[in-house]
Amino acid sequence: MLRQTLLYLPAQLLGPLAMFVAAIVWTHLLDEPTYGVVSFVLAAQELIYIPTIAWWSLFALRFRGAAEAERRAAIAATDGALVFGGAAIQAAITLPLLVGLGVEVSPGLVAAATVLFVTRSLLSHYCEIARTEEAIGTYTVAQLSGPFAGTIASFVGVKLFGGSAVAALAGIAAAQTVGLAWTMVRLRIDPRIHRPDGAVVRDALAYGVPILVASLCGWVSTNGIRMVVDHLAGAAALGLVSVGWGLGLRVSSVAAMLLTAAAFPIAVRRYESGDEEGALAQLALNGSMLFGLLVPTSVGVAVVTRPLVELMIAEPFRAATVAVLPLAVLAGAVRNQRTHHFDQVFLLRARTQRLITFNFIEALACMVGAASGLIWGGSGVAGLAGATAGCLAGTVLGAMLTAIEAIRVHGLRPQWGAWARILLASAAMAAVLVMVPWPAGAWGLAAEVVAGIAVYAAAILVAFPPIVRLVAARLPRGRG
Questions:
Q1: CB 379: neighbour CB atoms within 10 A?
Q2: What is the pLDDT of residue 471?
Q3: What is the 8-class DSSP label of residue 30?
Q4: Distance of alpha carbon 254 from alpha carbon 14, whole angstroms
């Protein structure tokens, strides 16, 4: 698992990190309403991908790699019809989708969004195909085409053509188009559309449709706050909350993605080989490792929020980002722990129908919570913080319900003792960061971050002696 994690690390780290940087830089290049449009269009891509292609991508990821030769060939033959058909549907509904989401449209915006939607969705799908093939180099290029190369291209577009949403989105779309062409060549994708295999389609629908519905609810959970704020407080407020909310989710994603690309396929291989206990044990280990990344990340960001925001975020966005960011990071951490740990029990056992119930409850709770918090907090920053807190409460509720069933019904056994030691190590880190009077400015912030990492690492070594023995065994031994 460590080897696979290291091989996937560049793609898993650089992509979300680039989007994190983009969210910061855009505060200096775009005004509040334009920032809101860009963030909303990117969120809309996630929405449109779910019903058109994502359900099939998840089926391919779960079953393609472990299938026998004949079944694998049938899945590959069906792939083109479903994927290219889904892309055509995306192109057709881009305009009504943008109008339905309340985005002010123009021909340029529709064109840029259409290309962005189609290319990013296809790249996302072929990333999953590359994972089933263990084609890590191809996966890396595909994964970085949009977030990394697209981010750079968006900055170039804004600098050349002005701070408009069209310029930012067109840059991303152009980079993704190049990355998609390269990825399809590397994976030897047949552009011809073959007649889909009926049995494969039926199996995919049985597995994927519940995930589709659950994922649509999940989109509402993570993006409903944008719709609530846009509807109740206006476009400028949407831009303000989008910075802290988007940054918080991306920080958690950066931490989670360090290991999740490699972790789940290992559990799948064990499960398909008949080792059910080994697969569940692997999920438990994955969950502990994920917890060990997400908790210190959430605690660290909460402690350094103010100096971080004052250093990096443009002044008009600062007050709202300071209030929203810690809550958003925690919401992202809870959601990632659920998605990449508890939810995976249901994926492993192909019991995806239950995810619909939990995701629907979470989505409803997030929308109600965001609206209630915004109204209760009133206008300005307090209202945006209230909306974020309400959304966080809904996320926690969904995670708790999912965890209870994963443990009681499906036999997942989280390593609670390890989780407790991780919390103690994170508390030790927080204590040092809070008690030491760090200097202001970039160097002070850098020192605080480095110190936090060092303290947490030291505390983890104390809390988990087997790690010390493992490291010691790997160190070169001197002679004599």
A1: 10
A2: 57
A3: S
A4: 8
Q: In 146-257, at which residue ranges do the beta strands (DSSP E only) sit?
A: none
Task: Dig out the tokens for 308 from the structure.
Answer: 């971080």
Q: C-alpha 301: how far from its chain's center?
A: 17
Higher-confidence position of 145 and 258: 145
- How far is residue 303's CA from residue 281's CA, in Å, rounded to a whole number? 34
**Helix, strand and coil in the chain, % to nearest 5:** 85, 0, 15
Q: Give just the sign of the alpha carbon dihedral 306, 311, 313, 318.
A: positive
Per-residue pLDDT band for 480 (boundaries 50, 70, 90) equals very low
| Token code pair at residue 336 | 């990632």
pTM attached to this predicted model: 0.78
Q: Which two tokens stand for residue 445?
A: 């912030």
Task: Please choose, from the candidates 337, 351, 353, 364, the residue with its C-alpha nearest in 3D space to the C-alpha of residue 217.
Answer: 364
Do the beta carbons of residue 355 and residue 210 sit within 8 Å? yes
Within 13 Å of residue 386, how many CA atoms lie on the same side as its CB? 18
Asked if the model's pLDDT at residue 246 lies above 70, the reply is: yes
Of 387, 416, 274, 405, nearest in space to 327 by CA: 387
Buried b (16+ CB within 10 A) or exposed e, 181-199: eebbebbebeeeeeebbee
Residues with Cβ within 8 Å of 452's Cβ and at least 6 positions away in sequence, in order, are 296, 300, 303, 304, 429, 432, 433
- Listed in sequence order, the residues at least 6 apart from 260 whose beta carbon sits closer than 8 Å to its beta carbon are 12, 286, 290, 340
- The candidate with the shortest Cα–Cα distance to 267, out of 279, 255, 278, is 279
Q: Are 259 and 293 within 8 A, CB to CB? A: yes
The overall longest dimension of the chain from CA atoms, in Å, is 76
CA distances from 110 to 98, 99, 169, 465 (A): 8, 10, 10, 56
Helices vs. strands in the chain: H and E counts, helices first: 18, 0
Closest to 16 (Cα-Cα) out of 247, 222, 178: 247
Residues 6+ apart with CB under 8 A from 168: 26, 29, 30, 38, 154, 157, 158
SS (H, E, C) 101-115: CCCCCCHHHHHHHHH
Over the stretch 380-412, which tens digit does the pLDDT of each residue have?
899 999 999 999 999 999 999 999 999 999 889
What is the torsion angle, in degrees rounded to the nearest 10, for the CA atoms of residue 451, residue 455, residue 456 and residue 458? 140
> Which of 189, 149, 205, 151 has its CA nearest to residue 352?
205
Cα–Cα distance for residue pair 61/72, rounded to 1 Å = 12
Angle, vertex CA 248, rays to CA 227 and CA 46, nearest 5 = 50
